[in-house]
Design brief:
Layout (H helix, E strand, L loop, with lengths): L2 H22 L3 H28 L6 H32 L6 H27 L1 H4 L8
Length: 139
C-alpha cells in the first residue's frame, strides 16, 4: 500500500466518524466539531485523489488543490459563524443543546420570562415612581 491509499483510508475514516457524530449528538458544539471532522476527511480524500494522479506520472491537479484550499477557508468561516450562532443560542435559551427536552425547557423559560417582564411593565405603569430610575425624585 502506498501513501496515497493510506491518506484515502484515513480520510474515509475521518469522514465516517464525522458523519456519525453529526447524526448522533444533540449538543451543538459537538455537531460543529463533527462537521469539521467530516470536512477534514473530505479534504484528505480529495488530496489523496490528486496524489494518486501524481504518483501515476501525471501532474497534480491544480484545480483540485485550489478547491481544497478554498474549501478549508470556507469551512473556517462557516465554523466561525456556527460558533457565533451557538453563543447566541446559549444566551437566548440558556442551553447549547438541540434536544427536544432542552428546547422545550427553554421555551417554557422564555414564556415565564416574558410573563415576568409584562408584570414588571404593569407595575411600573401603576406606580410612575417605580419606573423612574431616579426613584421618583425630581430635580
Amino acid at each position: 500500500m502506498n501513501s496515497a491509499t493510506w491518506y484515502g483510508l484515513v480520510g474515509a475514516a475521518l469522514a465516517g466518524i464525522g458523519l456519525y457524530g453529526l447524526i448522533v449528538h444533540h449538543h451543538v458544539l459537538r455537531k460543529i466539531l463533527s462537521f469539521n471532522l467530516l470536512g477534514a476527511g473530505v479534504f484528505l480524500i480529495a488530496g489523496a485523489v490528486a496524489r494518486r494522479g501524481a504518483a501515476a506520472g501525471l501532474p497534480g491537479d491544480p484545480v483540485l488543490q485550489g478547491l481544497v484550499i478554498t474549501g478549508i477557508i470556507v469551512a473556517f468561516a462557516a465554523t466561525a459563524l456556527a460558533v457565533a450562532l451557538l453563543l447566541r443560542l446559549g444566551q437566548t435559551t440558556g442551553s447549547a443543546s438541540l434536544s427536544p427536552r432542552a428546547l422545550g425547557d427553554a421555551a417554557a423559560g422564555n414564556g415565564a420570562r416574558a410573563a415576568t417582564l409584562r408584570a414588571d411593565e404593569a407595575s411600573s405603569l401603576a406606580d410612575p415612581a417605580a419606573g423612574d430610575p431616579r426613584g421618583g425624585a425630581t430635580s
